[in-house]
């Protein structure tokens, strides 16, 4: 049993607090800021044991040092970003494992958005914290890595079970759906999803987390090797990689 608290921060970031109910072990994922995290910990009478960082961007680590100072927590983050992320105590690399109470996490290196990006995957809790690699209906911009790395990282995530609940770093779903619909305007599932998302946002709710199985069907980036999708885009002769490059470029200009 576990609980996940979701804190919206800055303009469109999400910070998550994971609590393993049996042991009360608690971790905070990608604290963009410290104040909202510390206030919620205080309100819920929680002791924070760990911070999990997915990558070095400031809107994912901005709260690190202040939270560490106030709570004495340990910080876990990518070994490759030891110099760029302040306060890391436990450096992580591909296939490392880490237990938060009864929740077992496996670490995957998923470069592309940044070169050192990692994600935290739990098979037994069906959770994925993927930072800025995969978004609902979208994927992260390729800032430091190559498109080739990003496509490989997305394939790694796509290979996880359909039942996985994905917790990403930003609320970008609405604009991602508009982009997906610009490629595939008649897609009924996308049109339904657009309604669903608009209703959630209108009620002040979150569109995150999302189900990976549904995402595999709807996310244009995860369909770069889908022959029907390529045909619809008019790029049937493209490789999967070239299709991914094409869709990523279109999104960058959208
Ligand atoms: Zn980022």
Query: What's the overall average pLDDT, rounded?
Result: 97
Distinct small molecules bound, one entry per kind: zinc ion
Q: Architecture, CATH level 2?
A: 4-Layer Sandwich
- CATH level-1 class: Alpha Beta
Q: What is the distance, rounded to the nearest whole angstrom, between the alpha carbons of the first and last residues?
A: 41 Å
Question: How much β-strand is present in the residues?
Answer: 25-35%
3D structure, described in words:
The protein has helices spanning 35-43, 58-61, 64-71, 147-158, 173-183, 188-202, 212-218, 227-233, 240-252; strands at residues 2-9, 13-20, 26-29, 50-52, 74-78, 88-92, 97-100, 103-109, 118-122, 127-131, 134-135, 138-139, 165-168, 210-211. It is an alpha/beta fold and 254 residues long. It has one domain: Ribonuclease Z/Hydroxyacylglutathione hydrolase-like (Metallo-beta-lactamase, Chain A, 4-Layer Sandwich). The strands form three sheets. Strands 1-2-3-4-5-6 form a six-stranded mixed sheet, with no helix packed on it. It has a six-stranded mixed sheet with strand order 7-8-9-10-13-14. The protein has a two-stranded antiparallel ribbon with strand order 11-12. The longest helix is centred in the last third of the chain and has 15 residues, at 188-202. The mean pLDDT is 97. The structure holds zinc ion. Zinc ion (ZN) is lined by residues 55, 57, 113, 132.
Main features:
single chain, 254 residues, alpha/beta, Metallo-beta-lactamase, Chain A, 25% strand, globular, binds zinc ion
Quick structural overview:
This protein has a single domain, classed as 4-Layer Sandwich (Metallo-beta-lactamase, Chain A), CATH 3.60.15.
